[in-house]
Design goal:
about 500 residues, alpha/beta, Rossmann fold, GMP Synthetase, Chain A, domain 3, eleven-stranded mixed sheet, four-stranded mixed sheet, 18 helices, about 20% strand
């Protein structure tokens, strides 16, 4: 295969120069003005008088915040699947199918060709940041494996298709990049994730893979199958793919998986790099070390707004943008995109940790807010308490799920945690440490525990792979599906907690 890295170097050098000179606020103003200009003649643009909008304040006055259901009901469903000049010029050619982490009904997220091009540019930015950190890279000398769902798309109407975002991306890949993608089309089309992972593992051995990417949970499952197929006791990716340079991860908080991935990459030259992609658009990329935030993509078809989490359902929420957002504040992330999503509540909460350039940390999900008993626990508080308890015990954990345990006869209200653990551990000690951490981080929880309104959290340890089995039973194995870290009722635990230890 011809090494195209030299061409990438020219692009990366020019792109890094542009990014160094980019004024974040002006870049976002230009993006918003371009979006408004492009959509001024659409039904949405006319309904919101886009031609009169001159400033960010004008836009925020004209366009209220919307959730997916609002946009679907008012602007997509009436003419679905042929949505022409409604929210973006022309006909929406693709819909990315997404159910998120809540298990709710499937969403049809519009993907325009402008958004597909923006996603390709984001991928080039990812590679450009890699070259900046690894100047001797030859990343395009081999192939790239992106572990997603089936690339098969379902026709909905002439020129309109729906499917997994990875299938849409595959359809829009330029000709020169197709030979560098893995797996081949016959495997990529397989809808059954178990069968697909098995075929990938069989076909990947002996391939010159330079990039591997996906959601950490499903990557670990694939890697285990690769080692089984290779018949090797050496559990290092470098033994299978000696030229591996880049392992891309995203979609979930990485801390529970970091130790496992660092062991897998030990002795290899591959670097870990986090990304923040969503079906609605590519948001950010890590351009520094882990924990230093993800750099927002400011000139790539998305205008970002930031709303204080407590105000997300207010009649008149405070709407910030990069011109006035505050550092260290938890915000609900709002997107306006070149796929026709306008002031769209993405569902994630983020915290701005740097201004030059703007970098964010993903602090949780709006839905990952637990208030079953007046405790007001955030997803971030829960995740940090679980990880802190595991660290204090010196145990390695995988996926986990936290939720309420409602009172019944003879049982106080409390919380429960199911967590994957490779070896038997002291559940009572885990519960004690978890309880202490939640008390420290959340005053409401601490008061409820101090005055006996809540019983201590119940911890159940499950073997590695249990969550994957549970997701398989729900028809949500692999691809972009994610294990919900916080749930609002007990039913998921009833399904999950069988034969635990």
């Amino acid at each position: 295969m011809i090494d195209a890295t030299a061409l990438l170097r020219f692009y990366a050098a020019a792109r890094m120069t542009r990014l160094r000179r980019l004024d974040p606020v002006q870049a976002q103003l230009r993006t918003l003005r371009h979006l408004i200009r492009m959509a001024a003649g659409t039904d949405f643009g006319r309904a919101h008088d886009f031609r009169r909008i001159r400033t960010v304040a004008d836009y925020q006055t004209a366009v209220p915040l919307r959730r997916y259901d609002d946009i679907w009901r008012d602007w997509i469903a009436p003419s679905f699947p042929v949505v022409r000049n409604r929210i973006w010029p022309g006909t929406i050619p693709y819909y990315a199918l997404s159910s998120g982490t809540s298990g709710a009904r499937t969403k049809h997220i519009p993907v325009t060709r402008a958004m597909a091009r923006a996603n390709r540019r984001a991928t080039l930015d990812l590679l450009a940041h890699h070259l900046q950190h690894c100047p001797q890279s030859r990343v395009l000398r081999g192939k790239s494996l992106m572990l997603g769902g089936s690339t098969d798309l379902t026709p909905l109407a002439p020129g309109v298709e729906a499917g997994d975002l990875s299938g849409i991306a595959q359809r829009e890949v330029p000709w020169w990049a197709r030979a560098r993608l893995f797996p081949p089309a016959d495997i990529a089309l397989i809808p059954d994730w178990d069968r697909k992972a098995e075929r990938i593992a069989e076909a990947a051995l002996g391939e010159d893979l330079r990039v591997i990417g996906g959601t950490p949970t499903w990557l670990l499952v694939l890697f285990e199958r690769l080692f089984e197929k290779a018949g090797t006791a050496d559990r290092h990716l470098g033994a299978l793919f000696p030229e591996l340079e880049l392992l891309v991860h995203g979609g979930v908080r990485f801390d529970p998986f970091r130790a496992q991935f660092e062991r897998l990459l030990a002795g290899s030259r591959a670097e870990l790099r986090e990304v923040y992609p969503a079906s609605e658009g590519f948001v950010a990329i890590a351009d520094r070390r882990p924990g230093e935030g993800l750099r927002l993509l400011l000139d790539n078809g998305i205008f970002f707004e930031f709303v204080p989490v407590a105000e997300i359902d207010a009649a008149r929420p405070t709407r910030h943008w990069l011109g006035n957002a505050e550092m260290g504040q938890d915000y609900a992330l709002i997107l306006s995109t070149n796929a026709g999503l306008w002031s769209y509540i993405l569902g994630d909460t983020v915290r701005l940790v740097d201004r030059t350039p703007p970098r964010i940390l993903v602090s949780g999900r709006i839905s990952y807010f637990l208030n079953a008993f007046g405790e007001h626990l955030t997803g971030e508080q829960i995740e940090e308490a679980v990880l802190g308890a595991a660290s204090a015990m010196g145990v390695e954990i995988g996926e986990f799920m936290f939720g309420p345990r409602f009172p019944r006869e003879g049982r106080q209200p409390s919380h429960q945690l199911a967590v994957e653990c490779a070896a038997a551990a002291d559940r009572d000690r885990f519960s004690e440490l978890l309880d202490q951490a939640l008390r420290r981080s959340n005053a409401n929880f601490g008061d409820d525990r101090q005055y006996g309104r809540l019983a201590p959290p119940l911890v159940t340890l499950v073997p590695p792979g249990r969550f994957a089995d549970w997701m398989r039973g729900r028809g949500k194995l692999g691809g972009q599906h994610k294990v919900p870290r916080v749930v609002q009722d007990e039913r998921p635990f009833d399904e999950l907690l069988q034969d635990s230890f």
